[in-house]
From TrEMBL:
Keyword Hydrolase set for record: yes
Domain of life: Bacteria
NCBIfam families linked: PRK08203.1 (NF006055)
Protein name: 8-oxoguanine deaminase
MF annotations from Gene Ontology: deaminase activity; hydrolase activity, acting on carbon-nitrogen (but not peptide) bonds, in cyclic amidines; metal ion binding
Keyword Secreted found: no
Ranges where the Amidohydrolase-related domain occurs: 61-396
Keywords: Hydrolase, Metal-binding, Zinc
Length: 459
């Protein structure tokens, strides 16, 4: 699309999620090329003559696209297993299955995960992929290609594990890489896929899996690699009481102190979960600008606990939302996390003051952009930012009787997505993906899930 061609979206409610929380009961958004050119109240300025398309969005709420900050796409093939386990038991049950994945499986799982999120309003996705069995093919390439086909903006967190059972870790030895192998493959993924430019469609982060599956050397050298390359760092942190105990036993300190000792606190780092954080851990995250991917559904599914999101926000910690892998959150939708972030945190000590509907929307948009290091580009509807936005239909049975569209979006049923744009390019129309075949993806995920189950059963 040429930079001067415009899309005008009008007659809609708008939640810009800018710093002032600006909203319009009836307004317009003008998209020029891949950027937002104007947002305002009332009718759109009469015709930019070169508007190629005018969308009458009566009955809709327009928001920034949702940003997912933690996921494991491959788990799309192992949903609905180990359904009554805590994290450690769940991991030990599933590792031997996961160790059988190969490139066609990962490709199908990535397509399934991406399709599910994209048709539900996600415009920026991420995949923390940390299982690379020997001879399994080019998994990073397969995942990146799936994201390009779907049309979403994407961060590949190239994960790794090098602490197998013989080194006191949780994963079986056959599921881990060597330290040098993991570092070299991560660097290769950065070199091949990471785009530093404004508006990048693909970025790569260095992402050793977690303290229970990774050596201290991999954490330290991974941090050095990321900083040498100018890319971000991601891992799991402070997810469960068992992990906390593991860190105290092995390292003589809690997870946050351990991360700090290995170079893993900083404004270029974000961590999934951060459930078991004391006041000084939260202060350390705030002081260093370390971000958090809050995954309320997964934390509930695995009985991990409730992250202290209101305290993190009060301290100034950047917080986004994550689906987490779909073996611990079978729905795979980010919309659900807006609602569950609000509900779960209200079960904590702050009760009804824990989070507002608008704060929940902010976590799923601007907060996500912050933790991915992309707040200058995405996460709010402001002139000059990338045109990543969603038209949510609010005049159907599910929402029509709710006057406040933001409350309807966050607290109500999943709102139908009439249209979703990434960099001004439409990827969803009336709930259907425009660039990939959803039904073909569903069939391939079923085939590959069966193949994985058979291989694992034989193994
Ligand atoms: Zn995870």
């Amino acid at each position: 699309m040429a930079a001067t061609q415009r899309i005008v979206i009008e007659n809609c409610a708008i939640a810009t999620v800018d710093a002032h929380g600006t909203e319009y009961g009836c307004g317009y958004v003008v998209v020029a090329g891949d950027r937002i050119e104007a947002v305002g109240a009332g009718r759109a300025p009469t015709g930019p003559a070169d508007a190629v398309r005018r969308i009458d969005a009566t009955g809709h709420l327009v928001t920034p696209g949702l940003v997912n900050t933690h996921h494991h796409f491959y788990q799309w093939l192992t949903r609905g297993l180990a359904t009554d386990h805590n994290l450690f038991d769940w991991l030990v049950t599933l590792y031997p299955v996961w160790a059988r994945i190969d490139e066609p499986m990962v490709s199908a799982a990535a397509r399934g995960s991406l399709a599910m999120m994209a048709r539900g309003g996600v415009t920026t996705a991420m995949d923390h992929h940390y299982i690379h069995p020997k001879g399994s093919g080019d998994l990073s390439g397969a995942i990146v290609r799936a994201a390009r086909e779907t049309g979403v903006r994407f961060t590949l967190a190239r994960g790794s594990m090098d602490r197998g059972e013989k080194d006191g870790g949780l994963p079986p030895d056959f599921a881990v890489e060597t330290l040098d192998g993991a570092l070299a493959a991560t660097e290769a993924a950065v070199d091949e896929h990471h785009d530093h430019s404004f508006g990048a469609m693909t970025q790569v982060a260095v992402a050793p899996c977690s303290p229970v599956s990774v050596s201290s050397d991999l954490l330290k050298q991974g941090a050095e690699l990321a900083r040498r390359k100018g890319v971000r760092l991601h891992t799991h942190g402070s997810e469960t009481v068992e992990e906390e105990r593991f860190c105290h036993e092995l390292f003589g300190m809690g997870p946050t102190d351990y991360f700090e000792s290995t170079g893993w606190l900083g404004e270029d780092v974000w961590m999934a979960h951060c459930v078991h954080m004391n006041d000084s851990d939260i202060a350390a995250f705030a002081r260093t600008g370390t971000g958090v991917a809050h995954c309320p559904s997964s934390n509930a599914r695995l009985a991990a606990g409730i992250a202290r999101v209101p305290d993190m926000l009060a301290a100034g910690v950047p917080v986004g939302l994550g689906v987490d892998g779909t073996a611990s959150n079978e729905s795979g939708e980010l919309h659900t996390e807006l609602r569950n972030a609000l509900l779960v945190n209200r079960l904590g000590p702050h009760r009804e003051a824990a989070l507002t509907a608008r704060q929940a929307l902010r976590l799923g948009t601007y907060g996500g952009a912050q933790v991915l290091g992309r707040a200058r580009e995405i996460g709010s509807l402001e002139p000059g930012k990338l045109a990543d936005l969603v038209l949510w239909r609010m005049d159907t049975l599910a929402h029509a009787s709710i006057a406040d569209p933001v409350a309807a979006l966050v607290l109500g049923a999943a709102a139908p997505v009439t249209a979703s744009f990434v960099g001004g390019r439409q990827i969803v129309e009336n709930g259907r993906l425009l660039h990939v075949d959803e039904d073909a993806i569903a069939r391939s995920t079923r085939t590959e899930a069966r193949r994985l189950a058979e291989l694992a059963g034989r193994g």
